[in-house]
Amino acid sequence: MSAVPLTEAFPFFTEEHEMLRTSLRRFVRERVEPVAVQWEEAGFVPRELLREMGELGFLGIRYPQAYGGSALDTLATAVLAEELGRSSFGGFAVTVLVHTDMATPHLLHAGSAAQKQRYLPDLVAGRKIAAVAMTEADAGSDLQGMRTRAQRTAEGWVLDGSKMFITNGVHGDVFFVAAKTDGGGGARGRGISMFIVEKGTPGFRVARPLAKQGWLCSDTAELVFEDCRLPAEALLGVENRGFYALVKNLQNERIVLGAQAMGEAARAIELTLAWVTQRKAFGRTLWDMQAIRQRLAQRAAQVEAVRSLVFTTAWRDAQGQQVSKEVSMIKALAGTLVNEVMYDCLQFHGGMGYMRETAIERMARDARVQAIGGGATEVMLEEVAKRLVA
């Protein structure tokens, strides 16, 4: 799967997109796949590898050339996410994508000229790694339920609260933190602001790294802010308008997560095809069994359909069109489908699929969170439903 050049499969892709895909696939094959099992054991992706990706331009695909980026479009981001997903190491993929497409965009879209000049060159180059601290133990998809607060002072701000499930939380350098700033709670869509918090800021600490079912080489942490004093210029964007910034970036995030999931699903099918065409049972290969080959054919068709939705939506987003309904569809469909694909692929591997030495076992564990992170499937379907009657 995915062997057809992008420029042949979709009319809106260019040779530049195809070159990016070729470069990413080579990088993953040569620099990630041979050693990433060690990252799983260590619990994080080496900073040296991320800096190398920065030097090759992979971390600055969507960022202005003035800051070292390539100034490409949403389609390029989708290509990046799909190829990282194909690595078979979901933790590696999300480590990169949180940095490039879930955290740093907050600075690009809302940062002042001074803030961008201070942070973007290092973030694009991979010299510093970013994280976004939005989720709390009691406030995941419900942003209005967050309890972390920032109080204005004569010198700036004081931040108090905690954040949970933060990717790049242990090894990140720059954190974009959401906090309540309207003491009265504000109307829906108001009362939340974004702040830039650097590692080492007094009052800010990593409470603990979190052990997960999957994405083992993605470091994940609980963060705590206790009397964390920030200068006035730490405010990112407009006070009390952070909710809109979060919602705006979730659109890009869901395209990225959908592309990552379809890269994972396509790779799982490829690995399973290689297995069932040589594995014999009852005197014939598993591929000779109609139920197995038809199920894989069905899954391949479903993956191609959702992949087409991802890329078409990415193209529409690049044209400036409104795609709120479609990105929620992507997140719901992709998060469910990748899990269904992994279930079947592991099943067809038999006992070997349950062994830690096989990629399918790891990929099945990694996929589970795709129906939760970035917006649970049920929440996404509600978002779609609201727009069906709007």
Architecture blueprint of SSEs:
Layout: H1 6-9, H2 15-32, H3 36-42, H4 47-55, H5 74-85, H6 90-110, H7 113-125, E1 130-133, E2 149-152, E3 156-167, E4 174-180, E5 192-198, E6 204-209, E7 220-231, E8 235-236, H8 242-276, E9 280-281, E10 284-285, H9 290-318, H10 324-349, H11 359-367, H12 377-388
Parallel strand pairs: 1-4
Antiparallel strand pairs: 2-3, 3-7, 4-5, 5-8, 6-7, 9-10
Helix pairs in contact: 2-5, 5-6, 5-8, 5-9, 6-7, 6-8, 8-9, 8-10, 8-11, 9-10, 10-11, 10-12
Explain how this protein is built.
The chain is 50% helix and 15% strand. It is an alpha+beta fold and 390 residues long. The protein has a four-stranded mixed sheet with strand order 1-4-5-8, with helices on one face. The two termini are 37 Å apart.
Taken as a percent bin, the fraction of beta residues is: 5-15%
In helices, the fraction of residues equals 40-55%
Largest sheet: 4 strands, mixed
Number of helices: 12
Mean pLDDT: 94
CATH class of the largest domain: Mainly Alpha
Q: How many domains in all?
A: 3
Shape: globular
Distance between the termini: 37 Å
H and E string: HHHHHHHEEEEEEEEHEEHHHH
As residue ranges, the low-confidence spans are: none
